[in-house]
Write a structure and sequence with these properties.
Elements lengths: L1 H7 L14 E3 L1 H7 L3 E5 L13 H14 L4 E7 L3 H12 L3 E7 L7 H5 L1 H9 L2 E5 L5 H14 L4 E3 L7 H21 L5 E6 L3 H13 L4 E6 L4 H19 L10 E3 L12 H14 L8 H13 L9 E5 L10 H4 L5
Parallel strand pairs: 2-10, 3-4, 3-6, 4-5, 7-8, 7-10, 8-9
Antiparallel strand pairs: 1-2
Helix pairs in contact: 2-11, 3-4, 3-8, 4-6, 8-9, 8-10, 9-10, 11-12
The protein binds pyridoxal-5'-phosphate.
Pyridoxal-5'-phosphate binds next to helix 4, strand 7 and helix 9.
């Protein structure tokens, strides 16, 4: 753990959070489901730039890398309601850079609210310049194309990969995992499990790698939001190997990756009944806002995991709140149909 912290401190970082994110007990939800549940509020931070979220931790390292390379424009990609693009645009604005993005529309989501509201509205407000594409397939090639166009007009692009999930971005969640481990130790909680949404995989990867060092007996469960276990496991494991290599600590590159893929249907960005139920339950028992694409589905997995005794023991569970609430506005018709 000391070696990991030492290696991490060698990587440049811009402070975008302004301090640690709090851990709190979800008293109302715990009572409602009969199990002690805690949350780490990575949806918020002292600086709370543009409504915050998990990408800020990754961008602390990615933006520092961009500045070190003399970049003046962050180039990235995501879905039409991408929290990642919103946060990248906010950081670009905060650091006096520009932001250009490729946006895709997942199948079934070409609804007016998705183009005009939620994160899409915030992207416009933050001044990001967007191009549209049919799909995220070969997105690296599309990003290189956009970077080349930015370069051709005399600017200096830095490509932030989808979701900020490169080994440099994962440094943010290695740091986040160490922070979490210290908080849990100070609070004296004997955690059974940590549950989080696993998308582009960087958050899951960083938490699994760091917790293997500081809370080795705690189960880390990633709830997939876009694909099945095999595909997601490959994504997260490959990232862990490359991150271990970048740190010069290859022994860290094979953490245990546990994934549950029962909660992402009908597909990425499309609402599920149990995900919406989780969004409503947490809003009404805690006053805390989840989203239907990531955290609602992850919470649905946590609640079902309790119900079906899927966790390895009966101890407290910590939910990593990774943000995403701005998307609620684009999905409001799905979350609260007129009768609810
Ligand atoms: C709110 C929210 N939670 C979780 C995730 C998943 O994080 P990761 O892409 O690091 O797997 C995302 C990714 O966009 C997100 O926006």
């Amino acid at each position: 753990m000391a070696l990991l912290e030492e290696r991490l401190s060698a990587f440049p970082r811009v402070d975008l959070l302004g301090g640690v994110t709090p851990i709190q007990q979800l008293v109302g939800l715990s009572e409602a489901v009969g199990r002690e549940i805690f949350v780490k509020r990575d949806d918020t931070a002292p600086l709370a730039l543009a409504f915050g979220g998990n990408k800020l931790r990754k961008l602390e390292y990615l933006a520092a890398d961009a500045l070190r390379m003399g970049a003046d424009t962050l180039v990235t990609a995501g879905a039409i309601q991408s929290n990642h693009v919103r946060q990248t645009a906010a950081i670009a604005a905060h650091l006096g850079m520009r932001c250009e993005a490729v946006l895709t529309v997942p199948p079934g989501l070409a609804k007016i609210d998705h183009f005009a509201s939620g994160n899409r509205f915030l992207m416009n407000l933050l001044g990001v310049s967007c191009e549209f594409s049919q799909s995220l397939d070969s997105i690296d090639v599309q990003l290189e194309g956009l970077a080349a166009r930015v370069k051709s007009v005399g600017r200096r692009p830095y490509v932030v990969p989808v979701g900020g999930s490169s080994p440099v971005g994962v440094m943010g969640y290695l740091r986040g995992g160490i922070e979490l481990g210290k908080q849990v130790a100070a609070m004296g909680i004997d955690l059974s499990a940590i549950v989080l949404a696993s998308g582009s995989g960087g958050t899951h990867c960083g938490i699994a790698m760091s917790l293997a060092q500081c809370l080795p007996s705690t189960q880390v469960v990633g709830i997939t939001v876009s694909c099945g276990v095999q595909e997601q496991a490959r994504k997260v494991s490959d990232l862990a190997v490359r991150t271990g290599g970048l740190l010069g600590m290859s022994e860290l590159g094979a953490p245990r990756i546990e994934l549950w893929d029962d909660y992402f249907a009908p597909g990425y960005g499309q609402c599920s009944a149990d995900g919406i139920e989780a969004v409503r339950l947490v809003a009404r028992t805690e006053g805390m806002l989840l989203d239907p694409v990531y955290t609602g589905k992850a919470m649905a997995g946590l609640l079902d995991g309790i119900e079906r005794a899927r966790f390895s023991n009966d101890g407290p569970i910590l939910f990593l709140h990774t943000g995403g609430a701005p998307a609620l506005f684009a999905y409001q018709g799905d979350i609260l149909p007129a009768a609810a």
